[in-house]
């Protein structure tokens, strides 16, 4: 296990990158703590697989360094880095038995056969593959194959981190849960460093202690699932995490007051100060879960018009319009919401202010 | 649901039956017909049963031709399959060089077979042929029209030149179909280049290799045009393979009965060997599992 540090890392697939858009990965510094379970979350094409492949050594970064426990491994090949990687599509060696598949990375490194046998049996036990050890790997189902891929990473005792590149994409939904739980158990038992790439927020939030959200080649936030939910550092995080995503409304500052198309909402002075300092395009964000809907006017409540109510059985999604903006609110099943006039409460402590997409608190 | 049961479906496959009957079955039956009769004149024929078959099977010349044929096909397969795999592995994987290599490789496949024979016939000549002249100039005595060994070497080299590209193209397509993740996983698992070949590339190539193997086996076992043009089966009978022997029998000597009997035997040999190869290769690497 190791602590992984990325220093001034950037990568471009072009030979002579000039504009920032030429970079698949823009310059970043990051630390992945030893023994952490990280999820790397982001839409397709945001650079998460590139980042993963740089950590494993499959790609040499254009700039910057990769450190494992302080040791520079930027120039080292994957096999010299002691990293394990599980790919989107299960990679198994068709002609080998499950046992030989699991033994392969050890045998390649010249480990004594007695130890190979011991380790393979330990790992097979852990992954519930013992009964299949003598079978040919090619005849197994996708989930068992993916377990074998994982097993090939786990057999090596000295492995620095296990990287997962959307490993559950081809697995049946009901088996996904089982595999994910297995992974979590293994993580808790052995405190391995895990980095898990996915574009599925549920997968990321249930799997990881820390979620790294990537967008357009940059890391926009690193935080616990709760932090991502409550205080998105970037409008993208607000939009990407949660269903429906965060409501974002363009706004202006007038002294310490936020103005949304004529509607005035007072702000704490230090918040307003930070927003002024940051400058740029201002946006006010609030999660649909934090909006409250009232049937009658009340102090601080904003007059709005409900345009649609979608009843999803255990909650309602309400589409409302006020001050030139359309917002969504996620309300309890018993909330009194009907199409027509209504009043919305925006809890001040739940509001987030963004300048050019980045949170100013 | 009620299912209608009748024989109407047969009408749908009837066109195929008719085509196959006229293109394969009826000509084949003619051969069967000849093989069991002695044709003496336009309306004179005698049923001879298995006589032609027995005669053909005891023919010493034919035994020699069969052995020669088996040696030739074995040699061709032993050289062309590994060479084809090696060349496919060595081909560049991207850029204009790939297209260039593929086009150059495909050229021999586009040349009519008798032209291939003619090209090598001239190429190998000691007086005006580039190949023959150079080899002789290097001090190696080479004359494919007089020396059986030289004739053999020429026929084999010609076939390798002509047909290895087919194996290369098939293997190249097979290699390109292997997802990158396999190579990446192998790098992470610390696999050597040999292990990558042995455990990833070769198993993934099994399907195309089966096709390459069968095509090359069948074609080489039936080879006729190129050696016929190049050596005419000589010197002596040293490069007379089965097809040429058959042609001599049927067209040269007009022994239609034995020729027909032998055609059937020839067909059965190819069918049997192809079936054996197919079964063996399909099951190869499937063993060991309980």
Radius of gyration of chain A: 25 Å
CATH architecture of the largest domain in chain A: 3-Layer(aba) Sandwich
Unreliable runs of chain B:
none
Residue windows where pLDDT falls under 50 for at least 5 positions of chain A: none
Strand content of chain B: under 5%
Number of structurally distinct domains of chain A: 2
CATH C-level name of chain B:
Mainly Alpha
Judging by the overall fold, what is the CATH architecture of chain B? Orthogonal Bundle
Number of domains of chain B: 1
CATH topology of chain B: MetI-like fold
Shape of chain B: flat
Find the CATH superfamily of the largest domain in chain A.
P-loop containing nucleotide triphosphate hydrolases
Mean pLDDT of chain A: 85
Strand adjacency order, main sheet of chain B: 1-2
Strand order of the largest sheet of chain A: 6-7-8-3-9-10
Helix and strand composition category of chain B: mainly alpha
The counted number of beta strands of chain B is 2
* Name of the CATH first level of the largest domain in chain A: Alpha Beta
**How far from one another are the termini of chain A?**
36 Å
List keywords for this structure.
heterodimer; A: 361 residues; Rossmann fold; OB fold (Dihydrolipoamide Acetyltransferase, E2P); 2 domains; six-stranded antiparallel beta sheet; 10 helices; 21 strands; B: mainly alpha; MetI-like fold; two-stranded antiparallel sheet; 73% helix; 3% strand
Write the layout of secondary structure elements.
The complex is a heterodimer of chains A (361) and B (290).
Chain A: E1 4-11, E2 25-32, E3 37-41, H1 48-56, E4 63-68, E5 71-72, H2 78-81, E6 83-86, H3 98-108, H4 113-127, H5 142-154, E7 161-165, H6 173-190, E8 194-198, H7 201-207, E9 210-215, E10 218-223, H8 225-230, H9 235-240, E11 247-254, E12 257-260, E13 263-266, H10 269-278, E14 282-286, E15 292-294, E16 302-311, E17 315-322, E18 325-332, E19 340-345, E20 352-355, E21 358-359
Helix pairs in contact in A: 3-4, 3-5, 4-5
Chain B: H1 9-35, E1 37-41, E2 44-47, H2 51-57, H3 60-90, H4 96-110, H5 113-123, H6 130-137, H7 148-176, H8 180-188, H9 193-221, H10 225-230, H11 242-252, H12 256-283
Antiparallel strand pairs in B: 1-2
């Amino acid at each position: 296990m190791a602590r992984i540090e990325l220093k001034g890392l950037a990568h471009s697939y072009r030979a002579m990158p000039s504009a920032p858009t030429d970079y698949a990965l823009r310059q970043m510094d990051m630390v992945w703590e030893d023994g952490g379970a990280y999820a790397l979350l982001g839409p397709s094409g945001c650079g998460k697989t590139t980042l993963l492949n740089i950590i494993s050594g499959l790609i040499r970064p254009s700039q910057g360094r990769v450190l494992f426990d302080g040791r520079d491994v930027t120039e080292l090949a994957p096999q010299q880095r002691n990293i394990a990687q599980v790919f989107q599509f299960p990679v198994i060696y068709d002609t080998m038995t499950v046992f030989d598949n699991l033994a392969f990375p050890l045998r390649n490194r010249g480990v004594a056969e007695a130890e190979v046998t011991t380790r393979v049996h330990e790992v097979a036990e852990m992954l519930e593959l013992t009964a299949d050890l003598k079978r040919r790997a090619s005849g197994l189902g996708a989930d068992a194959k993916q377990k074998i891929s994982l097993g090939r990473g786990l057999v090596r005792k000295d492995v620095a981190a296990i990287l997962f590149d959307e490993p559950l994409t081809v697995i049946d939904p009901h088996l996904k849960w089982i595999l994910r739980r297995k992974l979590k158990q293994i993580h808790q038992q052995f405190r391995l460093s895990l980095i898990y790439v996915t574009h599925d927020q549920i997968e990321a939030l249930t799997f990881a202690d820390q979620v790294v959200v990537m967008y357009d080649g940059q890391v926009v936030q690193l935080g616990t699932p709760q932090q991502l939910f409550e205080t998105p550092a970037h409008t993208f995080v607000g939009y990407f995490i949660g269903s429906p995503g965060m409501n974002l409304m363009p706004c202006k500052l007038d002294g310490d007051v936020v103005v949304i198309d004529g509607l005035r909402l007072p702000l704490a002075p230090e918040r307003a100060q930070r927003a002024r300092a940051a400058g740029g395009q201002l946006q006010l964000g609030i999660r649909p879960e934090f909006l409250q809907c009232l049937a009658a006017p009340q102090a601080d409540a904003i007059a709005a018009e409900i345009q649609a109510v979608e009843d999803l059985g255990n909650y309602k999604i309400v589409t409302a319009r006020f001050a030139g903006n359309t917002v969504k609110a996620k309300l309890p099943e018993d909330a009194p919401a009907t199409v027509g006039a209504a009043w919305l409460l925006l809890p001040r402590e739940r509001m987030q202010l963004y300048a050019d997409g980045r949170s100013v608190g | 649901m009620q299912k209608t049961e009748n024989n109407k479906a047969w009408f749908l496959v009837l066109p195929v039956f008719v085509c196959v009957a006229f293109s394969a079955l009826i000509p084949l039956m003619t051969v069967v017909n000849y093989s069991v009769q002695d044709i003496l004149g336009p309306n004179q024929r005698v049923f001879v049963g298995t006589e032609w078959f027995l005669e053909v099977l005891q023919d010493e010349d034919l035994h020699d031709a069969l052995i020669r044929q088996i040696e030739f096909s074995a040699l061709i397969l032993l050289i062309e399959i590994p060479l084809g795999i090696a060349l496919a592995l060595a081909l560049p994987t991207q850029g204009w060089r790939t297209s260039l290599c593929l086009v150059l490789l495909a050229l021999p496949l586009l040349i009519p077979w008798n032209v291939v024979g003619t090209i090598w016939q001239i190429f190998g000549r000691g007086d005006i042929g580039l190949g023959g002249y150079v080899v002789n100039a290097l001090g190696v005595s080479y004359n494919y029209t007089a020396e059986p060994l030289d004739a053999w070497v020429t026929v084999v080299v010609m076939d390798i030149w002509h047909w290895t590209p087919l194996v290369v193209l098939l293997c190249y397509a097979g290699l390109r179909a292997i997802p990158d993740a396999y190579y990446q996983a192998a790098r992470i698992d610390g696999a050597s280049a040999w292990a990558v070949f042995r455990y990833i590339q070769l198993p993934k190539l099994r399907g195309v290799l089966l096709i390459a193997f069968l095509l090359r086996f069948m074609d080489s076992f039936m080879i006729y045009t190129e050696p016929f043009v190049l050596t005419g089966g000589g010197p002596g009978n040293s490069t007379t393979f089965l097809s040429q022997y058959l042609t001599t029998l049927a067209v040269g000597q007009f022994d239609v009965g034995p020729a027909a009997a032998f055609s059937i035997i020839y067909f059965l040999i190819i069918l049997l060997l192809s079936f054996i190869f197919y079964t063996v290769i399909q099951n190869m690497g499937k063993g060991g599992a309980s």
